[in-house]
Write a structure and sequence with these properties.
Blueprint: H1 4-13, E1 19-22, H2 24-37, E2 41-46, H3 53-62, E3 65-68, H4 71-79, E4 87-89, H5 96-104, E5 109-112, H6 115-124, E6 129-133, E7 141-143, H7 153-165, E8 169-174, E9 179-181, H8 186-202, E10 210-212, H9 228-243, E11 249-252, H10 256-259, E12 263-273, E13 282-286, E14 305-307, E15 315-321, E16 330-340, E17 348-352, E18 373-376
Parallel strand pairs: 1-18, 2-3, 2-11, 3-4, 5-6, 6-8, 8-10, 10-11, 13-15
Antiparallel strand pairs: 1-12, 7-9, 12-13, 12-17, 14-17, 15-16
Helix pairs in contact: 2-3, 2-9, 5-6, 6-7, 7-8, 8-9
Modified residues (N6-(pyridoxal phosphate)lysine): 48
GO cellular component, one term: cytoplasm
Domain Orn/DAP/Arg decarboxylase 2 N-terminal: 26-259
Length: 377
Amino acid sequence: MATQRIIDFLDTRRPEGPCLVLDLDVVRENYLGFEKALPESRIFYAVKANPAPEVLRLLASLGSCFDTASVAEIEMALDAGATADRISYGNTIKKERDIARAFAHGVDLFAVDCVEEVEKIARAAPGSRVFCRVLTDGEGAEWPLSRKFGCVPAMAVDVLRSAKELGLDAYGVSFHVGSQQTDLSSWDRALADTSMVFRELVKEGVNLRMVNMGGGFPTRYLSDVPTAQAYGMAIFDALSKYFGNRLPETIIEPGRGMVGNAGVIKAEVVLVSRKADNDNVRWVYLDIGKFGGLAETMDEAIRYQIVTPRDGDEMQPCVLAGPTCDSADVMYEKNPYPLPVSLSIGDEVLIEGTGAYTTTYSAVAFNGFEPLRSYVI
C-alpha cells in the first residue's frame, strides 16, 4: 500500500515520468520488526536491494550491518556511517584486487564457495574470516538463487578445511533459501545441511562459530506473506532442532523484506491497443518496463500490485508491456493481468511493493529512456 506520505508527495510534487518514491518510515518499521523477530541475529542489510544513500544512512544509524556485493557497495556503506567491522563482502565471485581493496578498507569478512576463492582471500586478505555458502533447493521462492552460488555441503567441508590450512579464520556457513521465499520450512532444510558441515569439521578440530541465514524474507505483492515474527519463530525452532543448546552466532541479510514495501513506482499509460479487430485481449503499454526497473517481471516471477484511478470499474485481463523497442519488454503475457476496461491513455498508475530491486536494475538509459528517478522521503 502506498503510504499517505507517498500519496501526498506525488500530489504536491507531481514528478514527470516514471519514478520511485520510498518512505523511510516504513524502512525503519521493517528494521525494528526484524530486530524483534530475531533478537539474537545481527542484521546485515543487502545493499543491492536499494543502495539509496538515505536508506543506508538510516539503517547505519539504527545499528544495521551491511551485506555488500562489490567494493563500490562497501564504500557506500562506509560513507553512510558504517564501520568496516559491520560490513560483509558477501559476493562469492570477487577479483583478487577487489578483495585487497576491501581488506585495505578494513573489511575482513568474506563469502566463499570454492577452494579457488579461498586461495585468493588468503593471498589478498590474510587472516580474514570466511564463511562458505552451501547450495539450497530454493523451492518455494518466487526468485530462486540456486546453482550460480554455493557448493554442496560435502564440498563446503573441504573449502573451510582449506581456509584453515591457509591461515584464514574458518568462521561459518551461509545459505540463501531464494528471494521472496514464502515456505517457512525452507530454513529448516538449509539448517539441516549447515549443521552437518559444523559436525564434520568439529571432528577435525575446526570449530565454526557462525551461520549466515541469508535473505529471502519477502515483501507483499499480490498475495499475503508470513510476518517477520513467523519467520523468526520458524528459524529459531530449526536452529534449536539442529544445534541444541549450543546455538551459533547468526546473521540475516534482508533486502527485499527491508525496503520492498517502502516504495511505490508512479507510471503512466502510454497506449492501449489490440492486435486485431477480433482480439479480446488488450495490450496496455506503460512508460516503464523490464529495462526501466521492472526486471523482476522476467518469466513473470514477481507480480506487482497495480493500483489505477479506475479501480472499481469492470476488469478484464490484458497484456502489460513496457515502452522500449525490444520484444522482450513485456511484463505479463502468459498470465495476463486484470486491469479496468476503462483504463485510458494518460492515466497514472501506482506499482506497489517496488522499493527493492528496481532503481538498480534501471541504471542504463536503454532506448534513451532515462534511468528510474528515485525520491526518498
